[in-house]
Amino acid sequence: MEAYLNKGIKAIIDQFPEVGNILDEYGIGCAPCNVGTCLLKDIVEIHNLPADKEQEMMSMISGVIYPGREIAFPKIKREKATVSKEISYSPPMKRLVDEHVLIKRWVALIPEVLKDLDIESKDGIQLILDGVDFIRSYADRYHHGKEEEILFKYFDEDLEILKVIHEDHEQARAHVRAIIEALDRKDKDAISENLRKYGEILNEHIKKEDEILYPWMDRNLTVSQVGELFSKFNEADDSIGYSPERYLTFIEGLEERY
Ligand SMILES: [Fe+2]
Ligand SMILES: [Fe+2]
Predict the structure, then answer these.
(1) Residues 177-233: pLDDT tens digits?
(2) DSSP class of residue 153?
(3) CATH level 3 topology of 91-257
(4) Residue 41: closest CA among 155, 174, 159
(5) DSSP characters over 57-91
(6) Which of 38, 144, 171, 176 could pair with 160 in a Cys bridge, judged by C-beta atoms 3.0 to 4.6 Å apart?
(7) SS3 assignment, position 28
């Protein structure tokens, strides 16, 4: 079992697809992940299931890998188990979670925006440009900026989970570049497709951060690091040079319209 704990999850799921279903049952969505290089032991540690659930899940997994055999698996190093479903975040992490709320409101509007996508009229084009500005200035520079330039620096960036998160940011950026290029050549289908994919990535990405990454980071930061993060976030927000308020107004306007 030890060998499997140190193996990439994608390789394990390729060999034993049932393992993907088991992880899924415990709310660990590895099967659809496009990277999948996280090690099984890290996944168990990062998700921090209550001890009895972890035991139960690992028995099921070893049952699939070694059918009909009683396999003892080594104890995985973990911090104190999650006691309730309610996640409590440190103040800087709470700020990022709150920023996700506005990004999720935008993502929820994307299907409506796509329904009456208009790339001929001035207003139609402006709406696409405003959407791209929200993504680039609020979701990317203001929010992902704090993650990549400040928060993630407190951790080993070679960790698979951080590579997955970085990859999501990069994919989102690539879709935005593709939207702009498609707008230039008046390719409505490509705008639709890339905006739709952007929304899908962000939905999953925010869920990963809110439910897995940030709680795990909070468990690994010291009190003084949390304080330091809080002031670095303030400095970053002050230096951004524009008020995030206008993006709230943009989203509220769209919500009224649709
Ligand atoms: Fe992120
Ligand atoms: Fe985020």
Answers:
(1) 999 999 999 999 999 999 999 999 999 999 999 999 999 999 999 999 999 999 999
(2) G
(3) Four Helix Bundle (Hemerythrin (Met), subunit A) (1.20.120)
(4) 159
(5) HHHHHHHHHSTT-----PPPP--SPP-SSS----H
(6) 38
(7) coil
User: Residue 172: nearest ligand to its CA?
Assistant: 1
The boundaries of every CATH 1.10.3910 domain in the chain are 2-65
Tokens of 197: 């994919």
- Nearest bound ligand to the CA of residue 93: 2
Q: Does domain 2-65 have CATH number 1.10.3910?
A: yes
* pTM of the predicted structure, to 2 decimals: 0.81
147 CA distance to ligand 1 middle (Å): 6
Which residues belong to CATH 1.20.120.520 in the chain? 91-257
The CA 89 to ligand 2 mean position distance, Å, reads 14
> Taking the alpha carbons of 188, 193, 198, 203 in that order, is the dihedral positive or negative?
positive
Contact 82, 40 (CB under 8 A): no
Q: What is the pLDDT of residues 128-174, one digit of tens each?
A: 999 999 999 999 999 999 999 999 999 999 998 999 999 999 999 99
Cα 187 to middle of ligand 1, angstroms: 28
